[in-house]
Input
Amino acid sequence: MARVWLMVSGQPIAIILAAVVTAFSIARGSVFLTGGNLANVSRQVAFDGLATIGQTICLIGGGMDISVGAVMAMATALAIGLQPAGGVPLGVVAALMFGLAIGSVNGLLVVVARINPFIATLGTMVAVRGVLLLYTGAKPIAGTVPAFAQFGSGVIGFVPVPTAVFVVVLALAWVAMGWTRFGRNVYTVGASVEAARLAGIRTGHVQFATYVICGFMASLAGVLLAARLNAASIHLGSDTGLLTIAGAVMGGTSIFGGRGSVIGGALGILALGLLGNGMDLVGFDTYTQTAVRATLLIAVVAVGSFVSSRAARERLQAVWVSR
Output
């Protein structure tokens, strides 16, 4: 826990979280700080949070995946739509396999075809949205298995099931990124592909794996969302791609790769969730909320860029002085 605290205490996300909680505690503390509201926020954050874990790993490795929202929506449709044919197991397996498949396609487009990550994943996003429209007929799909919906709405003790799954996956991702060779390789590749290659790291394999993980995490989020809603819609995940990138960046992850943490990304998406919930309680309209989120993201990126540039200049000056 000490290591986690040291990791985030010096990041802007710690200040942002404190400011958000303080502001809405003052404005609507009688509602905002209730156990029911906080449990609801944790449940809502869990879905985008799972996708943010994958997005953070992808960004650290020097990539980017804006197709996560479309993959999540398609996974939801498969998890619900295949229930009449093969029950919950078929739907869940098909949804997860779909995420792995799209992640693999994204990895191949970026690593083998050498297409810019933004362009590559934009293309797969549009393609998946098209498949989703064909599969659903542009209509909502309702679930047919009550037990599946009960799972999505259930609790473990007092913790919502989606939140519990998110926390477990987050812990596993934190261990993988901070304590394994794979995690170290992802950071090294994100910092410098050429340096990683000279160090003997199979850079293509590492980058490919980050996209596969990202696709899987998006599909896992879709499965949990399907269980929660017991329905699927073409409108799900429309802003998830940008939200996950925003959450990761707010949590200290660099969009240029090589720096960040899944804990920071999780805190970033939590801050956005608390911000949205607080603005709902205060009565902000949708357009105002979008503007506030965008302004906050720009401010965080600007401050991060300024701090990074200043640190780089100081290191350069130190080198010249030492000579």
